[in-house]
Design brief:
heterodimer; A: mainly beta; Lipocalin; 16 strands; B: mainly alpha; 2 domains; two-stranded antiparallel sheet
Chain lengths: 348, 335
């Protein structure tokens, strides 16, 4: 598979769709192109053998929004092509698509249907996969300052070859949102999900193989707050609990995520993302289990610093430094990587 | 959003719920009293202006009716009297408008000063309340808590006054009559210049608000893009537990947009009156409460309003210059 041919086809298709959307004056369309070079210190996310190289990165994002008096339709597509120097096997095409339709009632009641899809194509590796999910939710005001959001969701992950790591999930969420003064908003939410894996559960059966498939119960309590005055600040604390019929996957996890955006000077913007995690597995086990096949799917600890300088209304220079210390596919083993990206971003 | 009539209601409410508590410092109480007194004046002037505006409207209708009638000496006299009345009314209205504008500025200054006092005051009261609680003095604790609540209420009122858009600008039509002398024409030209200046001043304030809105919208969309980049490109939280709501930090969907209170409230609110003579400026008090969509909508509306203000000010200036030229001609003729 030629990565460039695939990329060009996909990008052209979305660009065409975007143009079609633009032709309809009711649609608001915004696009973003990002290109540059990145240094990656550990391209295979390995805990033992770190290979570094430079990566060519191209990203395109199109967003379309249709707003009527009682309806809002939002479509968002982002595609990124990563080309690794001297390591073609790691070349990949990442695609993320989101869409939502919201019905807005006069009294603040909102009903929405949200869909999300993610497709990761390793252009010369057999580990391509796609994820999809959908949420049906409702937002309604309890008082003038308090809103409640309730949703039901379903989703799945599917690897192109083999189904050992595939799963489906169904779940529900309930969130309470409150305006805290004029500049801040707080949220408390509970999320529950039941995950059904396609693989067999290796429980304590005599033959070490049980016909039952692995099933996980995942619960999370999330507390988050946003603050906005001259800077944007978002903090989130999430307490997760995962219980599995395959004991080695039972864990408790606490995650703290802070996002900050601050313009120190006109035309300059500093953005920071900080993630810290503490994870505790319930059962002791040799580090052999594979909770996820793709190491990039796990996020544990990171610090990302992004500095951008607007050259014009549409063009900006970007410099992004990130350091990650994430859990590898091998349980409790962590890999480290540092990324340094320099490039240009165009918004129109 | 804070319209002139809402401001009027707020000030009335302020005057109504003016409870005096001795727990606050005398300086704060004095400043609050000054603010109340000013608010009282503002309410009266505004009410007077509303009455005059109604009179002006009915007078304009009467003049239109008189003009449509067949010409007769009686009709001409009535028309002449109506024109004289309208001139007097325009002068009185100009004065009332200037006074209202002056009071509005003064009210903002006082509110700003009081706001500074109140921040310190509340901290002190909370501290006192905590001390009283430690000493188990329930009476004092209740008194300080009540005083802190009142201070917070005052603080909110001051913030609302400061965030409120200017009072509605009424643009009165100035007509030239054949018997206007040079001095009258100059007076009318001055009136037009005043109105144009006021529009330009408001245009400046509107420009500032537009910049604020634009910066907020840009910052938010750039943060959303950043969060999306992290989700898409970096080794990222796409684990089995990923949720479109929880797995990424989206500044549009996590409270600032879909659940935005102001977004819901402002969704169907029309910003501007269609009346030609009435320029009702309004803008959101707190831009951080707005959703991205609302920010974009407000920017559009304010850009239109800015254009309209400029056009109106230019037209008034041009008209004033024409009147000045005419006044010079009449002056020369009289000489």
């Amino acid at each position: 598979m030629n990565p460039f041919r695939v990329a060009i086809k996909l990008f052209s298709m979305t660009f065409l769709l975007a143009k079609l959307a633009l032709a309809q004056s009711a649609w608001q369309l915004t696009s973003r192109l990002q290109t540059g070079v990145e240094y990656d210190s550990n391209i295979y996310e390995s805990t033992a053998r770190q290979v570094s190289t430079s990566v060519g990165r191209f990203l395109m994002q199109n967003r379309a929004l249709l707003t009527a008096q009682h309806w809002r339709i939002s479509l968002d597509y982002a595609g990124a092509l990563l080309v690794y120097q001297n390591h073609r096997d790691e070349n990949k095409l990442l695609q993320d698509a989101n869409g939502s339709i919201t019905w807005l009632a006069k009294n603040g009641f909102r009903l929405y249907l949200r869909g999300q899809g993610n497709l990761k194509l390793y252009l010369q590796s057999p580990t391509d996969y796609g994820t999809t999910s959908g949420t049906l939710g409702v937002i309604f005001p309890l008082t003038k300052k308090i809103f409640m959001e309730a949703g039901a969701e379903t989703g799945q992950l599917d690897y192109a070859r083999g189904n050992n790591f595939d799963f489906t999930f169904t779940g529900a969420s309930l969130a309470l949102r409150r305006q805290l003064g004029a500049k801040a908003m707080g949220e408390a939410a509970v999320v529950y999900r039941k995950l059904e894996y396609a693989r067999a559960s290796f429980v304590n059966a005599p033959a070490n193989l049980d016909p039952e498939t692995q099933q996980d119960d995942f619960t999370a309590l999330r507390l988050s707050a946003n603050y906005s005055k001259h800077l944007l600040l978002q903090g989130r604390l999430e307490l997760q609990r995962n219980r599995s019929n395959r004991g080695v996957f039972g864990y408790n996890r606490a995650q703290l995520h802070v996002l900050v955006g601050y313009p120190p000077l006109p035309h300059w913007l500093v953005r920071v993302s900080f993630l810290l995690q503490r994870k505790r597995y319930l059962d002791a086990a040799p580090p052999i289990s594979l909770p996820e096949l793709d190491p990039e799917r796990e996020q544990s600890n990171h610090l990302v610093l992004d500095i951008s300088r607007d050259l014009s209304q549409t063009l900006a220079l970007l410099l992004r430094l990130s350091h990650h210390n994430n859990e590898s596919p091998v349980r409790s083993f962590f890999y480290r990587k540092t990324l340094l990206f320099a490039g240009l971003e165009m918004r129109f | 959003m804070f319209t002139s009539s809402r401001k009027f209601l707020l000030l009335l409410l302020m005057l109504g719920c003016n409870s005096s508590l001795r727990a606050q410092s005398s300086e704060t109480i004095q400043r609050k009293a000054e603010l109340d007194s000013l608010a009282n004046k503002f309410v009266k002037v505004h009410a007077g202006q509303v009455v005059m505006s109604r009179r002006a409207d009915s007078l304009a209708q009467a003049i239109t009716r008189l003009k449509s009638r067949p010409a007769s000496p009686l009709n001409e006299r009535a028309l002449d009297a109506a024109y004289r009345d309208s001139q007097t009314l325009a002068d009185t209205l100009q004065k009332a408008q200037s006074e209202e504008q002056y009071l509005d500025q003064l009210l903002r200054q006082k509110a700003e000063h009081l706001l500074k006092n109140l921040s310190h005051e509340i901290m002190g009261l909370v501290q006192n309340a905590n001390e009283a609680k430690t000493q188990r003095d329930q009476k004092k604790y209740a008194q300080f808590t009540r005083a802190a609540q009142v201070c917070r209420q005052w603080q909110k009122q001051c913030q609302e006054i400061l965030a409120s858009p200017p009072t509605t600008i009424l643009i009165y039509e100035v007509r030239v009559h054949p018997d206007d002398d040079a001095a009258t024409l100059l007076r009318k030209a001055d009136f037009l210049h005043d109105q144009a200046d006021r529009l330009e001043r408001e245009g400046q304030r509107l420009k500032q608000k537009l910049t604020e809105l634009r910066e907020e919208a840009t910052l938010r969309s750039r943060m959303t893009e950043f969060a999306q980049d992290l989700a898409l490109l970096e080794p990222s939280n796409e684990s089995a537990q990923r949720n479109p709501n929880t797995g990424r930090s989206d500044f549009e969907n996590s409270g600032f947009n879909d659940g935005s209170l102001a977004g819901v409230v402002n969704a169907n609110r029309e910003a501007f009156s269609s009346a030609e003579v009435l320029i009702a400026l309004s803008w959101p008090e707190q831009v951080s409460e707005l959703s991205l969509q609302d920010l974009s909508d407000w920017q559009k509306r304010l850009r239109q309003a800015q254009k309209r203000l400029h056009t109106q000010a230019d037209s008034l200036k041009q008209k004033a210059e024409e009147l000045e030229a005419l006044s010079r001609v009449r002056q020369e003729l009289q000489e």
